[in-house]
Protein: Solute carrier family 25 member 48
Organism: Gallus gallus
Amino acid sequence: MRGCLKVEPECAFLLGMETRLQAGQGYGNTLNCILTVYRNESVAGFFKGMSFPLASIAVYSSVVFGVFSNTQRLLGQLRHGDASHAPALVDVALASTVAGFISVGIGTPVDLVKIRLQMQTQTYSTANVKLKPTVPGFPVYQGPIHCFRTVLQKEGIAGIYRGMGAMLLRDVPGYCLYFIPYTFFCGWITPDGSISPNPASIWLAGGVAGAISWGTATPMDVVKSRLQADGVYLNKYKGILDCILQSYQNEGLKVFFRGITINAVRGFPTSSAMFLGYELSLKAMKRDQTETNP
């Protein structure tokens, strides 16, 4: 879902912890997860699987925000006869929904590769089966390209898009709870008479929107992570509903809120930076258009 325009080291670190908490086994809490990963895999373990997201995040963010902005402009033209007309709540909701659908098509393979690389060192166990991670130095996947190619060869396109349904259920409402709160809070804290929000208002509204969106998306994010991690050794889940039922039966309701603290903490600064970059880019483009067409 919501990434970083630029993935900072601390963002990559939190992404790694989030996946392990949600899809892994044996981590009592965030601190225990951090200590266990460091003890078993050293510092490199915190950044495992991040090269693919790093390489694609700029394109992903540009496409999602571009789709959202252009959909708003199209709705403004169709509904009000003016592409620059201030969007109504329904316009923001529709544009957010379209952005959510587009994000899933781009983001599902990226998330799958990241999660497979992070989870291939985890012990897999059931009541009757216990499989240990591959011997160090001989991982299941040798890197992001090898992971993508291996999944594609063994599981086909359906394998690359494993977890897509859960990601749709996460991202479509997630983007609505991302852009709508941002629009509301940005308008609320912008001083009366201002033509556009100032950077401080954008930063604060973006951070609040990010925390809200990620916090509410966490339950389905857990399901998505588990479905995508499934398959490194065995296929444990038959689908979204089966994953939900098995997770609840084995670990209770609290399992669906694993990583919620990390999501909220990560969501504020990354979303602040993202919306600030987005709004400043729009202002720069409008200024260039005005200078070009006086």
